[in-house]
Specification:
Layout (H helix, E strand, L loop, with lengths): L26 H25 L12 H7 L3 H78 L8 H8 L1 H10 L9 H72 L5 H20 L47 E3 L2 E4 L6 E4 L2 E4 L5 E3 L4 E8 L5 E8 L2 E6 L13 E2 L4 E4 L10 E8 L2 E3 L1 H6 L5
Antiparallel strand pairs: 1-4, 2-3, 4-11, 5-10, 6-7, 6-9, 7-8, 8-11, 11-12
Helix pairs in contact: 1-3, 2-3, 3-5, 3-6, 4-5, 6-7
């Protein structure tokens, strides 16, 4: 799933989009089931890899006493270094497996949300077609009613067509469509048949819409389960990576002791910790990919993000409603609604709103709540989901991993700086993809927030 546009192409604000052609009701659930089944299999493989990994990389490493004793013999020193190398490799493999499990769980979550959006589109299309068929039946009955009344008059029928045409509106359109002209009276039976047929079609479509709604609700439940599983897996993966990194720091200290007989154990460990902290800081400061930049397009009012931009933990002003804007400054905007996908060319629902901004621009929680997910998620790149209660959730996507400033289970206030704009996942430029879901179903986040007083 991709939520950006090519930065080289101007973005036009989207108003009401035309209604999409109706998806085949059977095809949507089928694709969703196949997609989720495949993702679940991948997740199972990844979890098996994690669970099947050694419980402790340090089990193969020498003890501190053995390391100190090995300093007196070159042969013992080389043996100890070889054991440490094996332990480092095991710790690295375990960390990679944990991250792989988190990625797989995030893929399942992304697929589950996409399936909900696809099913929602199918339901909405069927519902709209049912309403259109019902309106067609009502129009046909309106003409029949007028015609019957006029034909019942003494000498009726002579001025029937001209009188109906003069009435304008839907009746006129039905008359033109049927090309009845002066022979309207001879075609009342056909017109009644048309009303009956439209009624039957409307009933059939309404029944299909009900089935599609039930399928959508089922997929919403699956998406909730996928979110819970992804959150648990991501948390376990983070803890696993932290444990592996701590073990590697210990092993690095042992290596330092073996290479430099002048170092004390404390000095070796302090050096290893300093090296690890420096590497982590360098990774966090890694710039976005070459060429990543905010998309061009209509410029939205607002101050630029300068050196004084707030850092993680700060808040932006609350308008008094408990709700705030997710981003304070942006250079381009693409609305929620149906669009031609910029990569696949599919005409599909864009389930959120995109705000083009420089990578690193602060992203704020739109209201107080609890973080239910913070981690990788397929086309979203990296995703943060906040539950605001009452069935309302907000989601923020495409941050770099280092651009997530919260963790699963954390409570956040309205306007808390929870993330920073990035271009991870299905993205062609630095931007925030913002979603709001009501009961698990996507709604226009800008319209929703406007209803909360956010402009």
């Amino acid at each position: 799933m991709h939520h950006s546009v090519d930065p080289s192409v101007p973005v036009r604000p989207q108003g009401r989009s035309p209604r999409p052609s109706r998806p085949t009701p059977r095809s949507v659930p089928g694709r969703a089931r196949r997609s989720l089944a495949g993702s679940a299999t991948a997740l199972g493989i990844a979890l098996t890899a994690v669970l099947g990994a050694p419980l402790s990389a340090s089990a193969a490493a020498p003890t501190w006493q053995q390391v100190l004793e090995a300093r007196g013999s070159e042969e013992a020193k080389q043996d100890a270094l070889a054991e440490i190398a094996v332990a480092v490799e095991a710790a690295s493999a375990r960390a990679a497996a944990a991250e792989g499990a988190a990625e797989a769980a995030g893929q399942v979550l992304g697929d589950a949300q996409a399936a909900v959006d696809e099913a929602s589109a199918a339901h909405e299309a069927l519902q709209a077609e049912a309403q259109a068929a019902r309106a067609d039946a009502d129009d046909a009955r309106l003409v029949v009613g007028h015609a019957a009344a006029l034909l019942a008059r003494p000498g009726g029928g002579g001025g029937l067509t001209s009188e109906l045409m003069a009435s304008g509106g839907d009746a006129e359109q039905v008359l033109r469509g049927l090309s009845m002209s002066t022979k309207l009276g001879e075609n009342l039976a056909a017109l009644r048949d048309r009303a009956t047929t439209a009624d039957r079609l409307a009933t059939s479509l309404a029944d299909q819409a009900a089935v599609a709604l039930a399928e959508r609700d089922r997929l919403v439940d699956e998406a909730r389960a996928a979110l819970d599983a992804a959150a648990a897996t991501s948390t376990a993966a983070r803890e696993g990576v932290e444990q592996a990194e701590a073990e590697k720091a210990t092993l690095a200290a042992q290596v330092a002791l073996l290479h430099d007989d002048r170092l004390t154990l404390e000095q070796a460990y302090a050096k290893a910790e300093a090296d690890r902290a420096a590497a982590a800081a360098a990774a966090a400061a890694t710039p976005p990919p070459a060429g990543a930049r905010p998309g061009t397009g209509p410029i939205a009012p607002g101050p630029g993000v300068g050196p004084g931009a707030p850092g993680p933990g700060t808040t932006q002003p609350d308008p008094g409603t408990g709700w705030v804007a997710a981003i304070r400054s942006f250079s381009s905007y693409q609305a929620y609604g149906y669009r031609v996908h910029p990569i696949t060319g599919e005409y599909k629902l864009h389930a959120g709103a995109d705000f083009g901004a420089s990578c690193g621009t602060p992203i704020y929680a739109v209201s107080a709540g609890r973080v239910t997910y913070a981690g990788p998620s397929s086309g979203y790149g990296n995703l943060v989901v906040v539950d605001h209660g009452g069935g309302v959730t907000s989601a923020y996507a495409h941050m770099e991993r280092s651009g997530i400033h919260v963790s699963t289970g954390q409570a956040v206030g309205a306007g808390a700086h929870i993330a920073s704009v990035g271009t991870a996942g299905g993205s062609t430029g630095c931007h925030l993809h913002l979603e709001v879901r009501l009961g698990g179903v996507a709604t226009d986040p800008v319209v929703f927030l406007a209803g909360k007083g956010v402009r």
